[in-house]
Amino acid sequence: MWALLTTVSRRYFGRHRFQVALVILGVALGVAVWVGIETARASLTAGMRDTVDKVAGKAQIEISAGETGVPEATLDLVRDQPEVLAASPVIEATVHATEFQDTSLLLLGIDFLGDKELRNWTFDDADVLDDPLVFLAQPDSLCVTREFATRHGLKRGASLVLRTALGDKKFTIRGLIEPTGPGRAYGGSVIVMDVYSAQYQLGRGARFDRIDVRLVETVPLDDGRARLSVALGSGFDVGTPGGRSVQLTQLLDTFAATLQLGSWQAMLVAVFLIYNVFAVAAARRRHDLGVLRALGATRRQIARLFLCEGLILGLAGTAIGIVLGRLLASGMVSVMRLVIEAGYGFSGAPPQIRLAPGVLVSAIVLGLGGALAGAWWPARHASRMSPLEALSRGRVLTGTATEARPRVLIGLGLLIVSAIAALAGNSVPPLLLALIGIHGAAVLLGPSLVSFSTRCLRPLSRRGHTELQLATESLHAAPRRTNAAVLALLISVSFVVSMAGFIASFAKAYTTFAANVITGDFYLTASPQFISKPLRLPLELYEPVAAVEGVKWVEEFRSFRFDYQGRRPMAVSLPFAKTYQRVHVDVDAGDEASGKARIIRGEAIGVSTNFSRIFNVGVGDNLTIPTPTGPLTLPVALVVLDFTSDQGVVWFDRRLLLERFGDTSCDYFVVMRQPGVDLETLRPRLVEALRGKAGQMFIFSGAEFRAEVQKLFDQFFSFTYVQLLMALVVAVLGITNTLLISVMERTSEIGVLRALGATRRQVSRLVILEALLLATIGGTIGFAFGLLEMRVVAVKLSSIFTGWTVPPVFPWGFTLVFVPLLFLASVIAALYPARRAASLAPAEALAAE
Questions:
Q1: What is the DSSP letter of 181?
Q2: Are 172 and 42 a contacting pair, CB within 8 Å?
Q3: Beta-carbon neighbour count of residue 173 at 10 Å?
Q4: Residue 653's closest CA among 605, 582, 612?
Q5: Using CA atoms, how far apart are residues 623 and 621, in angstroms rounded to an integer?
Q6: Secondary structure tally for the chain: helices H, strands E
Q7: In this predicted structure, what is the pLDDT of residue 263?
Q8: Stretch 378-384: mean pLDDT, rounded?
Q9: What whole-number distance in Å separates Cα of residue 559 and Cα of residue 521?
Q10: Residue 11 CB: number of other CB atoms within 10 A?
């Protein structure tokens, strides 16, 4: 085998370097997407766990009450328990300094008097711990890590402006944290201040984010948790630091899972590219294979030769893909951190991008497996050729109707079964099988559809230019070569269209929802990112805003996640007596008028359609939500369409939030103006009303607020667009390879054309027209299969994963951009083969045969 590789394979690879490079690049792109996603997820997960572990210190238990926080009175109750050695309140959030907007900072609010029992703090000035009252006497005091101070040229006594719930506030650095214990967390970007100061600055009210507990040494952890749970009652989560990191990584897993589909799809297109190259390689080397067979080479040796070649190219592509994936992971980490910070207000330490051994192994398996899968059928076909057949000319590139019939029948059967599974399936396995079946049907039916398309184009082409007729005849005369290119393009276009259709469907539904609910005149927030989980507006700002001349009313919006049946749906609270006057509610179940009235009175709640489907809850069913004052059980009065959270949404009146949760803070204020008051007149009045009561606040008009929401939507899908582009690139590589091989196979034909007077420009146009015909055939068939896949992805899988039923929408906007881009990419792909064909001299071309 080694002799065959060093002679036959080496000589062939040397003569066809460009095709070899295309195969390697196709494998590399598929592997790169996979490595990038998995590396980004693993790096972020490690960063979050590292932050949680270092900040936890000696704490064994964390007591929380969801995102609404723990009432201050709970701290004394915990400290009075006999099994508790130490208990300390904590405020923890990701914030930003105005001087370093690109750097996320972990702010920890701690009790300097009692936190020494839980965390090993080491400060450059012992007075910070030995006499913390001096430090606390000045409310603008904070400490930063020595690493952060050195990195940004800061010293003790320097000022640092932080974005707080009351605007941008200036603080003074009065201590430096040495790199030990929590000082090593979050990549050293840690800020520490007094817990009660942090409460005020972040708008927490009289509540802590959590209470960290260290048990008496003789008390087992499980016993301590059980006793504290009994003492505190329902509404409190008595967990461990490790449990919190698990909750944070759940969002990562969901986000990464949506991206992994693209890596598998890119690899599938790469498989067809490999198949294309090796199928044509078998055709081009049929004479060499015939000689080898005549000299005694066995069928197994021929098959092993092709598979070994695929393995070598797959290994090279995998190595390059791993390097590209490592680079791609950096950009993915940035987007993932942004999504997590927006959704949870915490993203863990800035991660060190490292390739985990498991990711490397999976990348190698994916790359080599894809290469072998692409080379397998050509290897099988080459090994089954008899010496006489291999030494003959032309037969390898044709094919017969007899070969097509069973393939068509199987393809049609598979398509019918997939359609039935897509329509009837209500769980992930049958729907995934339906998607796989649609792909399989496309592969099996593709050659016949291509043959039918070329037959239809032949009579049409005879009415046009000679170059068009020759291009059509070339595609029709070599179906195996044409099929390989069209199948790669078909699979790629179907994936691109299905994902684009899903995004268009979801975007339309989401945009309609946003237009119905984001109807306020102004939205007042503490963050330029329209909503910031770490920063909440204090209720004390409500009266100054409500008293502004021209303001009709102000609504306090508050949302938070809570644990329910293993998931984390979102609760949304508003003063619905006001809110229902401005929003349009798309009711899915329940009487709208009576349901709204009951929700306003606090007698019932509303749930989103996806909450209803995920948890099987309907109108009239009782729903129990844990609160610090005990379980809140209310009937469901309305089921409404809502896209706020993929885990589901529960709506209840603000009065219940105040009574049962004791949470007075707000995420933002919704301001409605009096009739006749101009927006640009009201905006400066709002700014003036807050002067002296808060620093820089952010006031968005309704249109500006919707634009910010749309920006977050686009960021979430940004990597999906990258995947679509990669799939298109891999398909275009297949076109380039096919055209280049077509030029090589028709060297003699091109020589005859040149000898008969064909100009270089006419030969170039011939090749470019072939590319456009390939794009037309593959794009048309791919669009049809893509729309079929879109209905499975948009309607079924979306409903199962998120509970949302998104009506499928044809991606008109995307199509208007994609179709010209596809043809442009095809022309670009044809430039090099066209140039090569045009450069052939007639004598050289005729001598080649």
A1: G
A2: no
A3: 20
A4: 605
A5: 7
A6: 31, 21
A7: 57
A8: 70
A9: 20
A10: 12
DSSP state of 67: B
* 12, pLDDT greater than 70: no
Question: Quick one: tokens of 393?
Answer: 């000319």
The tokens for 820 are 């010209």
pLDDT tens track for 737-755: 666 666 666 666 777 777 7
DSSP 224: H
> What is the C-alpha to C-alpha distance for residues 301 and 4, in angstroms, rounded to an integer?
9
Distance separating alpha carbons of residues 267 and 290, to the nearest angstrom: 32
Give the integer Cα–Cα distance in Å for 617 and 40.
36
Q: What is the pLDDT of residue 401?
A: 44
Phi, psi of 667 (to 5 degrees): -75, -40
Per DSSP (E only), the strands in 540-640 are 551-561, 570-574, 587-589, 605-608, 622-625, 632-640
- What confidence tier does 313 reach under pLDDT thresholds 50, 70, 90? confident
Q: What H or E segment, with its residue span, contains residue 106? A: strand 100-110
**Torsion sign across C-alpha atoms 329, 331, 336, 337:** positive
The answer to whether 837 and 764 are in contact (CB under 8 A) is: yes
Distance CA 760, CA 773 (A): 20
What tokens appear for 837 in the block? 């064909």
Distances (CA, A) of 803 to 299, 616, 646, 799: 53, 10, 7, 4
pLDDT band for position 395 (cuts 50, 70, 90): very low
Q: What angle (nearest 5°) sits at the alpha carbon of residue 260, between those of residues 276 and 492? A: 30
Least confident range from 118-127, 128-137, 394-403: namely 394-403
Instruction: Collect all residues with Cβ–Cβ distance below 8 Å to 6 and sequence separation of at least 6.
Output: none
Could you tell me if 795 and 426 are in contact, meaning their C-beta atoms sit under 8 angstroms apart?
no
Residue count of the chain: 849
Tokens of 581: 């006057």
Mean pLDDT to the nearest integer, 805-809: 79
Match 């985990």 to its residue by tokens: 356
Taking only the tens place, the pLDDT of each residue in 553-571 is 999 999 988 888 878 888 9
State which amino acid sits at residue 24.
Answer: I
DSSP letter assigned to residue 8: I
Closest CA to 828 of 741, 757, 731: 731
Query: Rounded to 5 degrees, what are φ and ψ at 818?
Result: -70, -45
CA distances from 556 to 205, 523, 673, 689, 699 (A): 15, 10, 15, 17, 15
Q: Which helix (H) or strand (E) holds 341?
A: helix 299-344
Please tell me the distance from the alpha carbon of residue 785 to that of residue 558, in angstroms, as a whole number: 44
For residue 179, the tally of other CB atoms under 10 A from its CB is 11
Residue in the structure block whose two tokens are 């596809």: 822
- Which helix (H) or strand (E) segment holds residue 145: the answer is strand 141-145
- The C-alpha angle 740, 741, 746, rounded to 5 degrees, equals 100
Token digits for 566?
């293993």
Question: Could you tell me which residues come within 8 angstroms of residue 56 by beta carbon, excluding any fewer than 6 positions away?
Answer: 62, 212, 241
User: Residue 91 forms beta bridges with which residues?
Assistant: 109
Take residue 71 and report the two structure tokens written for it.
């009432």
Beta carbons within 8 Å of 217's beta carbon, 6+ residues apart: 85
Confidence of residue 179 (pLDDT cuts 50, 70, 90): confident
- 286-298 pLDDT, tens digit per residue, is 666 667 666 677 7
Tell me how crowded residue 120 is: count the other CB atoms within 10 A of its CB: 12
How many Cβ atoms sit within 10 Å of the Cβ of residue 365?
11
pLDDT of 633:
93
Average of per-residue pLDDT across 662-678: 91
Q: Which residues contact 536 (CB under 8 A, 6 or more apart)?
A: 165, 202, 203, 204, 526, 558, 665, 666, 667
Query: pTM above 0.85?
Result: no
- Helix runs in 661-797, H state only: 679-690, 702-716, 718-745, 747-755, 760-790
Residues with Cβ within 8 Å of residue 146, at least 6 apart in sequence:
124, 176, 177, 178, 179, 183
